[in-house]
Backbone:
């Protein structure tokens, strides 16, 4: 269990997007949870990932975050190979259990586990509803979320934060004009 609390403004997203959300804006400056292994421990704990928070795992998680950011914020055509490079370090092994069919993840090196799981989760989100992987609509926000709203129209990472700021800005602009 980490010794510091999770400082991020948005948590609880699927692991791939939660990894992207380890970078966020605060008072106009980019904050980064993954600057050291203590921050990695916070992220691993928040996602229920039982892996050591060591330098090798941090290096691999940062590689996965960069690859995911490239495909989510850039071009899938140009950055897919970066995600594939992370996925090359693990595989899914199909199993038969007393409960029926199952699967387990296997890694070439356990330090690739969290990175591989985040990359695989992104593929699952793409398979389920790629149009619901979203970037917050607030111009200065860099957070991502998976839209689980019934009609698929969520625009903000958080209505209380970014949504409210946008509404306040529009209100201020209207009152300033009149």
Residues:
């Amino acid at each position: 269990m980490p010794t510091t609390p999770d400082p991020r403004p948005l948590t609880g997203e699927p692991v791939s997007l939660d990894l992207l959300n380890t970078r966020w804006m605060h008072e106009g400056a980019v904050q980064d949870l993954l600057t050291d292994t203590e921050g990695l421990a916070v992220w691993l704990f928040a996602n229920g990932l039982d892996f050591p928070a060591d330098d090798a795992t941090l290096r691999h998680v940062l590689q996965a975050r960069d690859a995911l950011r490239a495909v989510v914020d850039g071009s899938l055509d140009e950055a897919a190979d970066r995600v594939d490079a992370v996925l090359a370090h693990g595989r899914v092994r199909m199993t038969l259990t007393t409960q029926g069919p199952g699967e387990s993840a296997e890694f070439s090196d356990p330090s690739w586990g969290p990175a591989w799981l985040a990359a695989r989760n992104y593929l699952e989100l793409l398979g389920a509803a790629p149009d619901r992987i979203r970037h917050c609509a607030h111009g200065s926000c860099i957070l991502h979320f998976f839209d689980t709203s019934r009609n698929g129209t969520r625009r903000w990472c958080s209505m209380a934060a970014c949504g409210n700021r946008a509404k306040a800005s529009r209100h201020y602009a209207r009152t300033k004009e009149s």
